[in-house]
């Protein structure tokens, strides 16, 4: 044991720099090295108390010639003319002091590279009752998140920031979901669901397909994290209907089966008061036309009646079969002098009603394919998380206004369903481009839904996993309510924003250089963010990578086969009951 400790010695606490309980420096031995993110430990004897162990993470490393005075001395030293020594010094940010006696490490004290139990203690892994692996550290060992800061026990919600296409935000979010569901930390996995909104192509329509790039090496990476290198096993896919198609065919090209089209009937639009979500752009709360929106929505709920099985409605004596029909009726009633006070409100003038009409008319092109009264109503058209562990809603073929409408309506419905169901499982909601749905300025129905989830979702079991290029443009209350903050590659200007104050100065710089797959993970228990690298996705991220459904998964109509892992609680379950299986895409 003593030999092992001696082998891990990397240097001594330096005496040329001030040593404090929170920051100290290490003079690195000539034959040793320390790199950024290494974990170290040193022990100090304290009179009358047990020894104090101080653990920390390397946040900066410097090397210099000791004995040189001028920049040109390096040439003389290299030629052996001028005597000097090369010395490397590492800056250490303290992560843990045990026991909590905050005294500075003494200069000259041995510093060891933390491994095994010491590493776990330094990073608080020893205190985590339920650990979620999120990748490998720089030392090649697993890095964990505390599930209690994800499931609402002590905190909830995840904020992921980084440059689009480089920071791999979506990939990491999917890997995190895979890890949560497959590492065994969920006490109620059967009732826990994930709702994923996809806005970037059809990449997420193949989560149930094994990636053809999975090989023995990749399986080994997953195995070191305690996870299987498999695709998600119980996934439902939804896409908007194809424009102009009256059969309700989903608007997708890469995947030809297993995707259902979603839309809302005119009867649902009226009865569920969905009109406010048509105006989901963030607006100044002082705009008076917003009062008209709620007045009209209430009028539709009271006056509209279903007219047939296809979702058409009768409103104020007129049959509406398309969204355009309904828009025209509303505009007529709101602008007519005789009906304006009834439909828009008694104190609403022509200017306000016209502002409402202009915005409503502009929604016809965006929402005409989603709000229908001319398609045969089928139960499979409703977006729901009840029948699958993971539900993917594909939005990439929709314009921004339609995307906002879908996200707002689906989130509100699923949050209401989860609140009604009461405690039990969790609902993880993964939403990319969060700055578009909950911008810092203005107000909108969808922003209010997201704020409700951020502030009240913890008690409801609704967990938001939000991703955005710029956290500085997202509503502050949403970011501040996220217990876990994750950063990938950042723009240099964005990295200087106060929203990234949790990153040490060196990590802010490194975030501008981070490669795909490298993330900085901050969680409440650990005072310094941890650098992690997560493995390549084991599921297909595009059609060319799709290798088919894994044998033994639940994507088919039958029960799990021999591919089920020993001890799998979902073995033998039909697809509608089996939770989702696994991994992420770069």
Explain how this protein is built.
By secondary structure, the protein is an alpha/beta fold. The chain folds into 3 domains: 2-126, no CATH class; 131-260 and 382-545, P-loop containing nucleotide triphosphate hydrolases (Rossmann fold), CATH 3.40.50; 264-372, no CATH class. It is 26% helix and 22% strand. It has helices at residues 2-7, 73-78, 116-122, 169-182, 216-224, 266-271, 289-303, 323-335, 340-343, 350-361, 364-367, 400-421, 434-437, 445-460, 476-480, 492-495, 505-511, and strands spanning 9-13, 23-28, 39-44, 52-66, 85-98, 110-113, 131-136, 142-146, 158-161, 193-198, 235-239, 259-261, 264-265, 305-306, 313-315, 318-320, 371-372, 390-394, 427-431, 462-468, 484-487, 518-523, 526-533. A 10-stranded mixed β-sheet has the order 12-11-18-10-19-20-9-21-22-23, sandwiched between helices. A 6-stranded antiparallel β-barrel has the order 1-2-5-4-3-6. A hairpin with a 2-residue loop joins strand 15 (313-315) and strand 16. Helix 7 packs across helix 10, helix 8 (323-335) runs antiparallel to helix 10 and helix 12 runs parallel beside helix 14 (445-460). The longest helix is centred in the C-terminal third of the chain and has 22 residues, at 400-421. It is elongated and about 100 Å long.
């Amino acid at each position: 044991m003593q030999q092992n400790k001696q082998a891990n010695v990397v240097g001594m606490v330096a005496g040329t720099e001030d040593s404090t309980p929170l920051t100290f420096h290490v003079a690195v031995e000539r034959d040793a090295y320390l790199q950024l993110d290494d974990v170290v430990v040193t022990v100090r004897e304290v009179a009358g108390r047990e020894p104090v162990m101080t653990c920390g993470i390397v946040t900066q490393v410097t090397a210099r010639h000791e004995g040189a005075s001028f920049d040109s001395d390096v040439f003389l030293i290299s030629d052996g003319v001028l005597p000097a020594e090369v010395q490397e010094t590492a800056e250490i940010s303290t992560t843990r002091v045990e026991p909590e006696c905050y005294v500075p490490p003494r200069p000259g004290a041995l510093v060891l590279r933390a491994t095994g139990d010491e590493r776990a203690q330094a990073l608080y892994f020893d205190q985590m009752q339920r650990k979620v692996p999120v990748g490998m550290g720089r030392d090649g060992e697993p890095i964990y998140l505390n599930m209690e800061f994800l499931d609402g026990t002590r905190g909830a919600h995840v904020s992921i920031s980084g440059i689009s296409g480089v920071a791999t935000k979506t990939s990491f979010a999917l890997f995190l979901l895979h890890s949560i569901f497959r590492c065994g930390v969920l006490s109620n996995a059967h009732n826990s669901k994930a709702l994923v909104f996809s806005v970037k192509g059809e990449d997420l329509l193949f989560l149930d397909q094994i990636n053809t790039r999975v090989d023995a090496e990749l399986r080994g990476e997953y195995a070191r994290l305690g996870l299987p290198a498999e695709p998600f096993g119980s996934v439902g896919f939804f896409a908007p209907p194809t424009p102009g198609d009256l059969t309700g065919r989903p608007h997708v090209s890469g995947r030809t089966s297993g995707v259902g089209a979603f839309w809302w009937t005119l009867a649902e639009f009226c009865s569920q008061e969905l009109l406010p979500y048509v105006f989901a752009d963030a607006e100044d709360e002082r705009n008076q036309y917003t009062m008209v929106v709620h007045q009209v929505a209430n009028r539709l709920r009271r006056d509209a009646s279903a007219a047939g099985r296809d979702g058409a409605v009768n409103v104020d004596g007129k049959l509406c079969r398309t969204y355009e029909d309904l828009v025209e009726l509303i505009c007529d009633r709101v602008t007519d002098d005789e009906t304006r006070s009834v439909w828009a409100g008694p104190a609403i003038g022509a200017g306000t009603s016209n502002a409402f009409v202009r915005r409503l008319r502009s929604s016809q092109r965006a929402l005409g394919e989603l709000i229908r009264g001319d398609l045969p109503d089928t139960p499979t058209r409703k977006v729901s998380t009840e029948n699958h562990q993971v539900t993917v809603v594909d939005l990439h073929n929709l314009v921004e206004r339609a995307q906002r409408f879908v996200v707002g309506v689906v989130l509100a419905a699923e949050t209401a369903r989860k609140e009604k169901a009461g405690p039990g499982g969790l609902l993880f909601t993964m939403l990319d481009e969060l700055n578009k749905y909950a911008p810092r300025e203005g107000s909108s129905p969808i922003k209010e839904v997201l704020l409700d989830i951020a502030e009240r979702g913890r008690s409801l079991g609704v967990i938001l996993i939000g991703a955005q290029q710029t956290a500085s443009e997202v509503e502050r209350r949403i970011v501040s309510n996220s217990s876990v903050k994750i950063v990938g590659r950042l723009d240099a200007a964005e990295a200087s924003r106060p929203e990234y104050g949790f990153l040490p100065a060196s990590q802010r710089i490194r975030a501008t250089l981070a490669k795909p797959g490298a993330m900085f993970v901050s969680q409440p228990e650990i005072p310094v963010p941890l650098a992690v690298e997560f493995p390549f996705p084991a599921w297909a991220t595009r059609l060319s990578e799709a290798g088919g459904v894994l044998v033994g998964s639940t994507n088919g109509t039958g029960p799990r086969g021999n591919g089920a892992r020993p001890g799998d609680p979902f073995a033998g379950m039909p697809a509608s009951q089996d939770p989702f299986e696994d991994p992420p895409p770069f």
